[in-house]
Structures are given as C-alpha cells and as structure tokens.
Hints:
Blueprint: H1 8-34, H2 40-46, E1 63-68, H3 73-87, E2 91-98, H4 104-110, H5 119-139, E3 146-151, H6 156-159, H7 193-207, E4 211-215, H8 222-237, E5 244-247, E6 278-282, H9 285-296, H10 299-310, E7 316-320
Parallel strand pairs: 1-2, 1-4, 2-3, 4-5
Antiparallel strand pairs: 6-7
Amino acid sequence: MKTELRPPQNKKRRLVKRRHLLGGLLVGGFVVINAPWVFGWLYQLYYRPVERLPGVSLGPRTRLLVLAPHPDDEALACGGLIREVLAGGGQAGVVWLTSGDGFEWDVRLVERTLRPTGAASVALGRRRMGEARRAAEILGVPPEHRFFLGYPDQGLGQLLTDAHRTAPYRSSLTLTDRVPYDGTVSEGAPYTGESLERDLRTVLDRFRPTLVLAPALRDTHPDHRATAELALRVLGDRAEADLLRYWVIHGGLEWPLPKGYHPALPLEPPTTGQGLPWHRLPLTPEVLERKHQAILAHQSQMELLSRFMLAFVRTNELFSERPT
C-alpha cells in the first residue's frame, strides 16, 4: 500500500496563507477599534442612528441621585446629565457604593507596591474618594450631596447573597470585613447586605430623589450588575422603582468605539444593550468640556484606562427606561 505525500511547496503555501489571514485579522481589528470612520457605514447598519433616539426630558425641580458602583462611574455615564439638572435649577447627588479599592493592578501602579493588599488597597480607596470629590466639585455637586458608602470593590455581588446577608464578607484586597474609611455614611459598618441596604435607604431618605440613575443589568461588570439588583430591590420595596433609569459603561465587544478622545462623535448604544429603549441626552460644548474635566479628575484611573474613559466624552449620553 502506497502512502501519498503532499509536495513540500503545498505546506509552505498553507503556512503563508495562515500568516496572511492572521495579519489581516490583526490589522482589521486595529482599524475597527482605532479608525471607525472606515467602518462607519457598518455602524449605521448595526445600530439605529443615534439622532433618531427620543430625547431625555427633565423637569425644573428634578432631584437626581446617581448610584455609582465606583468613583469615576458618575462622570463617565452621567456627568452631562448632572450638569443639565443643575443648570435647570434642580439638585444632583451621587452615592458611591465602593471606594474603588479592588483594582489590583491599579494598586500596584498608583501606590508603587508589589503587595497590593491591606494598607495599599485602602490607600488607593482613599485616593479615589478624593478624586471623586474633585470630580463632583467640577460637575457642581455640593459636598452635602456626596455620599460614600465604602463597601468592597469586586465584592458587591457577594453582599447580595444569602451567605453574606448578615455574615460579614472579607475583602481579599483590603483584608477587612467592614467599612475602613472615614467620611462614609456608616464608618465601621460590617460588609453585609443588610448594612449596604440600610445605608442606601439612609441616603434615599436624606436626599429624596425624583430621578435615580443606576447601572443596567446588562452591564457586564459584576459590581455594576449588583448595583442594579440592589437598586431594584431597595426602590421596589419603597414602591419607587418607577424613579429608576439606567446606563451602561461596560457594554461588551470593545464598546464604546473608537477608544480615546473623540468629542465630535456620538455615543452609540452598547452591544449588550440592543433592544433596550434608549433615550439620548445631547450635550452642549460647555457641558461636554465640564464632563471631560471631571473624568480627568480621576487621575489614578487615567494611568491605565485613559483611552477607555475618554471614549465617553461624546456628543450625547444614553439612558434606558428598562434595566434589561
């Protein structure tokens, strides 16, 4: 029985074709992410044009409360809306559920340490709280309307489970099981779902919002989804779920595109948010620049995530009436 061997040149051709294919995929991916004007017509086929989306309507006495899982989420998703509410004579407040102390690589870089746990992680949390205060000042949110809760970054979902409803959760980064920050609503409160819900209710009672903005359940970050679940649970118990509107920051497939600072481009609906009833808030150049400066105030995040964060400096913001 004879065995037929393929000529060596055929093997070489296959290798060359594979290399060309891989090179084409890499170049294509780079262009899609960094030069979307080449593929603009594909965006128009994939999404409804942003200009056709209904607008966001605000009353003159709006009391807006933004639920931010981490410092910087308020500026990325809602910085423009905060400015519009304040300019219209309303009130705006922000509640930060965590202090952003669970980003291990950020701790290493910003705190210049090879041990990103314990004191170093808490130090990053304090730094990020200071950045949130500066960003809030830029946006015009007064000190009395800034609420820090200080619960564990990367651990909000754990607090919503039965296991940690009353039994404290211990953060693997801060190495603590209770709120370690002063200036919070309940300094020293245990990391439990019960404490987290109680603190959010305290903020709602103090601020009495007429509009609450929270992440959508379709946001892919686990802390964002947990914040959405918490908001639906707490406001649902208060018969105030109709006050909720939703935003997305982690929207899948490299969204938003392109990365970097492109203030003349619109923000398209996220990939994970297809089918949601999106509403568009157009931003004036003055409001957009104020939002830009608020994002830049989060300096610790800009070192690693600047291209992602600056991609939210767009001509509009997007909000949904439904979380999913």
